[in-house]
Amino acid sequence: MLSKIKGFVGRHKKKFIFGGVVIAGGLLLKYGQRKLIEYQEKQVKEFLDRTRRSQHFESTEKTTDLAIIGLIPALCESIIKILNTESILAELKTNCKGNRKIELWEELKILSFARCTAFVYAISLLVTSLRVQLNIIGGYLYKDALQSTEKITKEIQTIYSLVLIQHLMGSGLNQLVKIIRENVVKVMRNQSLKEKLMLNDVEQLFWSIQHSVDKDINKNLIQFILPAETQHNQQDELLNKMLADSMDVFECGEYLETCESSINNAFTVVIDNVADFYVEPVNGKNKLNDCEPTTSKDTPEKETMNNNSHVNINSVSLPLAKIIPILNALTSQVPSTNAADNKSNFASSITVLQTTNQNIKTLGANVYEVYSH
Asked: Can you give the pLDDT at residue 162?
């Protein structure tokens, strides 16, 4: 019997081999097709997930930009109230004389430089911190959407947002302005009102103020962003986790470097705006004529500008007493929430620079990526 089976197999050996190859090939083909379909389905799912995440992130970014634009006017108004110059200007216009007049100008000097510096720091902190905060919320909301849950309720979103906004625009801002003013006094107290300053001298003064402020703050920016007593004191566990996540980001190197870079960029806006007053456009009149108070007579340098509209601003100098009203005027206007009304607004120029800053956008994208997975 075995010999017959052996003989049969021997005679049909090639057929058995061919049949085995065909069957095995068919099985492998079906397996390969199934794996290919699974791979394609996985790719489609990942593509749809990336698309949904990208669309949700873009929506979060738009919401952030709108929130920033809506909050900037109130922030600037608070700074103007804290560093108020109206009473000083009113008294100067009464033609006061002697030591009192000098005292008022000295105080106006400190307030004007402090206001410009406060605008730079406060707007930069608001833009960066709000972008971080709303991208953390966005990441959590996206995870909720994927899991078809609603852990992040409207109430949690509101409390989380208010914790940051109320502090940054309240006691945090007061603390920041106090530090800035103290350091402006250190840098500016020995600067004579009669001293002639070229544009790079003004830039150097602001650099000295920034260096002094940064040294005083010592990278502890979170003190202006989140109140210490509420960082771990919320009843909701998820809210505490979100606040802890925020603290981690606000204290990380990437955030601190981004803030430093954005503040540096914002100071260039200050110098660019001051530079407009170092040139004379047409008809012997420049923006300097519109700044109040202007009690000093025109300098020889200004007469030169009157006769020549093509002036090298790096060769022009103005007395500090002429620059003070410029800085005060730049920070006297509160920006509108309507972008069309803010074409020449100082605070709006800083805001536009910061909201379009690629480093800040990258920071927001990285935060969203971490908390949406």
From this structure: 85
Rounded to whole angstroms, how far apart are CA atoms 360 and 362?
A: 5
- Over residues 266-292, the mean pLDDT reads 70
pTM comes to 0.81
Q: How confident is the model at residue 282 (pLDDT cuts 50, 70, 90)?
A: very low
**CA distances in angstroms from 239 to 83, 231, 243, 372, listed in the order given:** 35, 10, 6, 16
